[in-house]
Write a structure and sequence with these properties.
This protein has a four-stranded antiparallel β-sheet with strand order 1-2-3-4, with helices on one face. It has three helices and four strands; from the N terminus they run E-E-H-H-H-E-E. Helix content is 29%, strand content 34%. A hairpin with a 7-residue loop joins strand 3 and strand 4. It is α+β, with helices and mostly antiparallel strands and 114 residues long. Helix 2 packs across helix 3.
Amino acid sequence: MTLRLNDIVVDCIIGDLPSERRVAQRLAVDVELALNDLAAETDSLSDTVDYSVLVGKVRSALKAAKCRMIERAAKVVCDLCLKDAKVSAAKVRVTKSGAIEHLESASAVIEATK
């Protein structure tokens, strides 16, 4: 079973330039989690990842981390997801828009398995 959370919006400090260290910028985070199929059978929240809780944890972790690189931000989120016993693997994409002129966005993707 795969659970996908798309476009988690986080305003946080991200970037290496002095100007980027002073003002929060918007990131979009996509999370893909490999889970067992139990919740599909039981229809119970206790058998899956509570994504309302996970979204809050992702937002808090990135705000606290104040990463310089989107690559690091992706790892922070991936490590957080893998702490949940119900998650066997995670794939995370962090997208930063408007970082430089003539570039719509840049993304970093990381995948990890327990």
